[in-house]
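sorry to bug you again but im stuck and you know this stuff better than me. below you get a single protein, a line of residues and a line of whole numbers that encode the local backbone shape. mainly i need to know what kind of three dimensional shape the backbone takes. anything you notice is useful, everything is just below:

***
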Amino acid sequence: MTEKTRESDVAFIKALAELLTENDLGEIRVKRKYGEDDGIDVRVSRAGAMAAQHFVAAPAQAAPAPAAAAPAAAPISPESEGDPAAHPGAVTSPMVGTIYLQAEPGAAPFVKVGDSVSEGDTVLIIEAMKTMNQIPAPRAGTVKRILVEDGAPVEFGAPLMIIE
């Protein structure tokens, strides 16, 4: 590995660390190939934050979002539901990224509280590493709560909505 490549790798890793902090993420992993037999596999994480999020902060992280969604889902309060991630109808995030509730800015949202959905219907999008990932409804039912805000960062396993 040349000194120039090493310096660019260090700059790349520093940029990833800044992205981690700016977007309040727990972890970023990137594989970079320079050639057939040359490349790097980088994982940047906030070790203390990740350990806390997996065991303690994941439910607390979801708490601010229900309060923001409370006007749309007024009949159900966060206190009466307990931990949204433990709800049997919870739809959880399959990845780290940014949530979008509609296909493009200004468009109608994919779903609203009270909407009926069929299994496989797109309920939201998660942007991860500049890729838009459509998140399908895992089951048919009615959207009871939306626990995230449009444009908000989300961690792996965080509850996104409740479908009953």
Confidence is low (pLDDT under 50) at residues 48-81. The first strand starts at residue 27 and ends at 35.
